[in-house]
């Protein structure tokens, strides 16, 4: 391929209008991209419905471009439908601009490693609530995991202590995010970009489901952005708020004359925190445990040996539990929840080796391909925490950071999410066994479930038998153990 005398990266040949869309597995485009790597190499160029896309297939190339040349690769694709689907608030979709820089500053002061450690006690407390929820209704374990993740975020961002059951703000946020994820999936965004008239059809028109979805998304997003923010601001103004992202921002950011701009950025970035994927990562952990009983037993044996069974693990135990650490890393690697990350966009043209990368192309880091790198991760489809140990038995330095993206657009909640994941995983392993479901004859069978499609990938509803590791553990007994653990 040539643009005058410059060579674009190699890639599959496509049809004039559809480009390579028909070759793509629409449910799991990352798998098709990964297959293309074997023919075309670690950087490929293709066209999807007229949109040029560069796919980066290895950590090395992604770092070389998205990190080392971040001044060119930190924009996001323009999405003219942002307003129509109610996603103007979303930090993750903002162009590389002063508005985006203000959002990042707000996140950075609360979620940079040193600051995020202030939330560890809350994360521990919410992990204990998670255990109590599952002891009471183990069949609803997935719902309890979702509640854990969103109430941790609500607490850190708004200092809002969500009720364990039917909390109105959590329900509103869940509803908004579900519709939003659907309507903002890369595929839907490409369709809307290419056929924006779909949003102009009356909502009752057959086939206008995207428009209906968009209207719903607008309403839900407005509620998700405004309601918790008003709650938190009120408490900051009356000096009744504990430390949270909202209170810290009011305290530390000098708004000078731009109070309106600042408040808009603050409420928008706060609502973006709901894009958190801690819950979906924890469901993948549950799947990994069910399918790899040996890994589960080894992690539990480590916890029992180091901590015993009289108390629950705390963050102070983290460095004494290397196998649990490896289970967390393997969960992030085995099935990355953002298999294609979020698309970056070039703000200038560039040359990489002999490849010309034009200005204004979508640049996708294929995190899935990176997790399948056989040289680094032999038998990549196996859930095998041992891969993170060196021959001398020490953990290696691969913390699977690529699952949080690259460069200036790297996940702002990475450190905080890692702590939430760790405390949930270690607490769940200390308390429960995750077993395959039984068939009618009482025999264990592999769970049957569907994966989500779109920008995030995780089991929609995962059947699992969650059993207490210490039969006879009642809610009261667990409460006693929790008391001894804090
Ligand atoms: C296990 C949980 C999580 C995973 C796997 C994850 C992963 C990611 C990935 C892959 C990206 C795209 C990075 C890129 O464009 O290169 C991202 C962006 C982002 N994440 Fe996370 N994330 C998680 C949790 C969180 C949490 C807890 C927060 C908030 C506290 C958060 C806030 C954000 C924001 C604001 C962005 C957009 C950054 C920007 O565009 O500048 N994430 N995340």
Report on this model:
The protein has 18 helices and 10 strands. The protein has helices spanning about 30-40, 60-65, 70-75, 100-110, 115, 120-135, 140-160, 170-185, 185-195, 210-235, 245-250, 260-270, 280-290, 295-305, 320-335, 365-370, 415-430, 475-485; strands spanning about 1-5, 5, 45-50, 50-55, 345, 350, 355, 360-365, 430-435, 465-470. The strands form 4 sheets. Strands 3-4-8-5 form a 4-stranded mixed β-sheet. A two-stranded antiparallel ribbon has the order 1-2. Strands 6-7 form a two-stranded antiparallel ribbon. Helix 7 (about 140-160) packs antiparallel against helix 13 (about 280-290), helix 13 crosses helix 14 and helix 13 packs parallel to helix 17. It binds protoporphyrin IX containing FE. Protoporphyrin IX containing FE binds near residues 107 and 338. The site of protoporphyrin IX containing FE has 29 residues, from helix 4, helix 13 and helix 17. Keywords: Heme, Iron, Metal-binding, Monooxygenase, Oxidoreductase, Signal.
Short synopsis of the structure:
The protein has helices spanning 29-40, 59-67, 70-73, 98-111, 113-116, 120-136, 141-158, 168-183, 186-194, 209-237, 245-252, 259-272, 278-291, 293-307, 322-334, 367-371, 414-431, 475-485, and strands at residues 2-3, 6-7, 43-48, 51-56, 344-345, 350-352, 355-357, 362-365, 432-435, 465-468.
Salient structural properties:
single chain, 486 residues, alpha+beta, Cytochrome p450, 4-stranded mixed β-sheet, two-stranded antiparallel ribbon, 10 strands, 47% helix, binds protoporphyrin IX containing FE
Physical arrangement of strands within the biggest beta sheet: 3-4-8-5
Query: What top-tier CATH class fits best?
Result: Mainly Alpha
Helicity level: 40-55%
What would the principal axes of the Cα set say about the shape? globular
């Amino acid at each position: 391929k040539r643009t005058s005398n410059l060579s674009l990266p190699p890639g599959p040949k496509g049809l004039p209008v559809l480009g390579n869309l028909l070759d793509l597995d629409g449910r799991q485009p990352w798998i098709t991209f990964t297959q293309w790597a074997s023919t075309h190499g670690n950087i490929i160029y293709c066209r999807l419905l007229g949109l040029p896309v560069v796919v980066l297939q290895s950590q090395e190339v992604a770092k070389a471009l998205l990190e080392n040349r971040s001044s060119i690769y930190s924009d996001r694709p323009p999405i003219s439908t942002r307003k129509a689907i109610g996603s103007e608030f979303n930090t993750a979709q903002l162009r590389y601009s002063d508005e985006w820089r203000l959002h990042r500053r707000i996140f950075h002061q609360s979620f940079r490693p040193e600051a995020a450690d202030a939330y560890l006690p809350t994360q521990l407390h919410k992990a204990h609530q998670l255990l109590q929820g599952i002891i009471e209704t183990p069949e609803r374990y997935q719902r309890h995991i979702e509640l854990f993740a969103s109430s941790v975020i609500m607490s850190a961002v708004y200092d809002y202590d969500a009720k364990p059951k039917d909390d109105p703000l959590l329900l509103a946020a869940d509803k908004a995010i579900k519709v939003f994820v659907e309507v903002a999936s890369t595929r839907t965004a490409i369709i809307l970009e290419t056929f924006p008239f779909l949003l102009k059809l009356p909502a009752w028109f057959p086939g206008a489901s995207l428009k209906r979805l968009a209207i719903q998304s607008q309403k839900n997003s407005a509620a998700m952005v405004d309601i918790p923010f008003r709650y938190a601001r009120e408490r900051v103004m009356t000096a009744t708020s504990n430390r949270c992202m909202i209170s810290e921002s009011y305290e530390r950011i000098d708004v000078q004359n731009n109070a309106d701009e600042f408040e808009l950025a603050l409420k928008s970035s706060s609502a973006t925190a709901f894009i958190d994927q801690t819950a979906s990562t924890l469901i993948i952990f549950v799947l990994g445990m069910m399918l790899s009983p040996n890994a589960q037993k080894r992690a539990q044996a480590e916890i029992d040996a180091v901590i015993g069974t009289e108390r629950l693990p705390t963050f102070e135990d983290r460095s004494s539990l290397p196998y649990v650490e490896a289970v967390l890393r393997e969960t992030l690697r085995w099935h990355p929840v953002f298999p294609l990350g979020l698309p970056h966009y070039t703000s200038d043209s560039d040359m990489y080796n002999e490849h010309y990368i034009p200005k204004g192309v979508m640049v996708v880091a294929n995190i899935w391909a990176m997790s399948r790198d056989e040289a680094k991760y032999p038998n990549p489809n196996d859930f095998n925490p041992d891969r993170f140990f060196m021959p001398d038995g020490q953990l290696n330095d691969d913390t699977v950071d690529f699952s949080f993206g690259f460069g200036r657009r790297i996940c702002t909640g990475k450190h905080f999410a890692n702590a939430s994941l760790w405390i949930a995983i270690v607490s769940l392993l200390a308390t429960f066994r995750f077993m395959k479901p039984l068939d009618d004859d009482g025999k264990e069978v592999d769970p049957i479930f569907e994966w989500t499609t779109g920008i995030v990938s995780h089991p929609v509803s995962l059947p699992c038998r969650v059993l207490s590791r210490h039969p006879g553990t009642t809610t009261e007994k667990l409460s006693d153990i929790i008391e001894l653990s804090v």
